[in-house]
C-alpha cells in the first residue's frame, strides 16, 4: 500500500496570494490518476488495517483539521465512495486559537517571504534560538520552498525557543494577517463537521494538541499531547475503534523512541510519519507506530501552484 498525505486543498484566494495549497482541480486529477494506477482505499480497506490486512491501493490521509477538508475534500471522497483518515490537532477547539504552525502558513501566505524574514530578524535575539544540527539537514527535504521561506519556517518551527515563539508569532500575525479570533473560526473544521464526517465513513485520528516537534518534548509532555488529544477527540466521536495518530511535521527528526513507546502503550493500531516509501506486511509489522507516508507532491498533479 501507499499512504499519501495532504494538507490544504482549496480554490485560489486573492486575499492569500502566496498561500501554498493544492488546487481542488489538481486534487481531483490526482485522485483520477490514483484510481487508474493503484485504486484508492475505501472504508473497508482502511478498517482492515486494524487486522493487518493490506491492499496495494493508495490510502488517503489529511492533516491538521483545516476547514478545506470538510468543504472540498469530504464531498469529493463521498462522490467516489472512498474514505480518508483525518488527523486533528485539538488545541484550536480547547483554546480557540490558531496553532503556531498555521500562523506561520498564514503569515507566509499573505506576504512575500523576504519581508516576513526581515521583520522576524528584527524581533529575535541570538539567545532566543536553540541550535539543532539535525534539523538543518533533515527538515523540509521533500518540500519545495524558496530560500527565505525555508529560513523563516526553520526559525519559527525548529530553532526559536518555545518560550518566545508564541509571542513573536502573534506580533507577526497582527502585522501581516490580522485579528486571530476572527480567523480561527473559519480556518478549522467545527466539531460538528468532524462528527458528521466520522458518521459518514471517514476516520478521525489524533495529530496531538499543540502540534509540537515531539523530539523537543520530555516524556511527560509527549504523553500529555497524545493521551489528552485522544480524550478530547473521543468527546466528538469514537476514535478508539481504529486508533491512529500522525506526528506533527513527521520526519524522522521530529519524534523519538519515547514517542513510539507511548503510542504502543496506548494501543494505537497504526501511526504515520513522513517518509516516501510503500508499506508491505513486513514494514507494517516492523514500523507500526511510524509507517512511511508520501507527500502528495511526490505524485503527478500534487504540486501547489
Ligand atoms: Zn500537521
At the fold tier of CATH, the topology name of the largest domain is TIM Barrel
The number of distinct structural domains comes to 2
CATH class of the largest domain: Alpha Beta
What shape does the CA trace take? globular
**Helix run count:** 14
Residue share in helix: 40-55%
Largest beta-sheet characterization: 5 strands, parallel
* Strand order of the biggest β-sheet: 6-5-4-1-9
Given helix and strand content, the structural type is alpha/beta
Distance between the termini: 27 Å
Radius of gyration: 18 Å
CATH architecture of the largest domain: Alpha-Beta Barrel
Mean pLDDT reading: 93
Low-confidence stretches: none
CATH superfamily of the largest domain: Glycoside hydrolase/deacetylase
Following the backbone from N to C, one meets helices and strands in this order, namely: EEEHHEHEHHHHHHHHEHEHEHE
Fraction in beta strands: 5-15%
For the secondary structure, the number of strands is: 9
Hetero groups bound?
Answer: zinc ion
Overview of the structural elements:
- The structure is a single chain.
- This protein is α/β, with parallel strands linked by helices.
- The chain has 2 domains: 2-95 and 192-298, TIM Barrel; 100-184, no CATH class.
- It is 47% helix and 10% strand.
- It has helices at residues 24-37, 43-48, 68-80, 91-95, 100-110, 113-123, 133-138, 147-159, 162-176, 180-187, 191-198, 219-236, 257-265, 281-286, and strands at residues 2-6, 9-10, 22-23, 58-63, 84-88, 203-206, 244-246, 270-272, 294-295.
- Strand 7 (244-246), helix 13 and strand 8 form a beta-alpha-beta unit.
- The mean pLDDT is 93.
- Zinc ion (ZN) binds next to loops.
Amino acid at each position: 500500500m501507499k499512504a499519501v498525505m495532504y494538507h490544504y486543498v482549496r480554490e485560489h484566494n486573492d486575499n492569500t496570494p502566496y498561500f501554498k495549497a493544492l488546487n481542488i482541480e489538481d486534487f481531483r486529477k490526482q485522485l483520477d490518476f490514483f484510481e487508474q494506477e493503484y485504486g484508492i482505499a475505501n472504508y473497508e480497506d482502511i478498517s482492515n488495517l486494524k487486522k493487518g490486512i493490506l491492499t496495494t491501493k493508495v490510502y488517503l490521509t489529511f492533516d491538521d483539521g483545516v476547514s478545506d477538508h470538510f468543504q472540498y475534500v469530504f464531498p469529493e471522497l463521498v462522490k467516489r465512495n472512498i474514505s480518508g483518515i483525518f488527523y486533528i490537532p485539538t488545541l484550536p477547539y480547547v483554546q480557540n486559537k490558531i496553532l503556531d504552525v498555521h500562523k506561520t502558513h498564514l503569515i507566509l501566505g499573505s506576504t512575500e517571504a523576504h519581508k516576513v524574514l526581515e521583520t522576524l530578524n528584527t524581533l529575535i535575539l541570538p539567545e532566543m534560538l536553540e541550535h539543532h544540527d539535525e534539523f538543518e539537514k533533515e527538515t523540509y527535504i521533500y518540500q519545495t520552498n524558496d530560500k527565505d521561506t525555508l529560513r523563516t519556517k526553520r526559525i519559527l518551527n525548529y530553532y526559536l525557543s518555545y518560550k518566545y515563539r508564541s509571542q513573536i508569532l502573534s506580533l507577526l500575525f497582527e502585522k501581516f494577517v490580522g485579528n486571530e479570533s476572527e480567523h480561527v473560526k473559519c480556518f478549522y473544521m467545527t466539531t460538528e463537521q468532524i462528527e458528521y464526517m466520522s458518521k459518514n465513513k471517514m476516520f478521525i485520528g489524533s495529530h496531538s494538541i499543540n502540534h509540537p516537534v515531539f523530539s523537543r518534548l520530555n516524556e511527560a509532555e509527549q504523553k500529555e499531547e497524545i493521551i489528552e488529544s485522544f480524550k478530547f477527540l473521543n468527546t466528538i466521536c469514537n476514535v478508539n475503534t481504529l486508533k491512529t495518530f500522525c506526528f506533527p511535521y513527521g520526519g524522522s527528526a521530529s519524534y523519538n523512541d519515547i514517542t513510539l513507546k507511548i503510542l504502543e502503550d496506548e494501543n494505537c493500531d497504526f501511526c504515520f510519519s513522513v517518509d516516501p516509501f510503500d508499506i508491505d506486511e513486513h514494514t507494517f509489522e516492523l514500523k507500526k507506530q511510524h509507517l512511511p507516508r508520501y507527500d502528495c507532491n511526490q505524485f503527478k498533479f500534487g504540486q501547489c501552484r
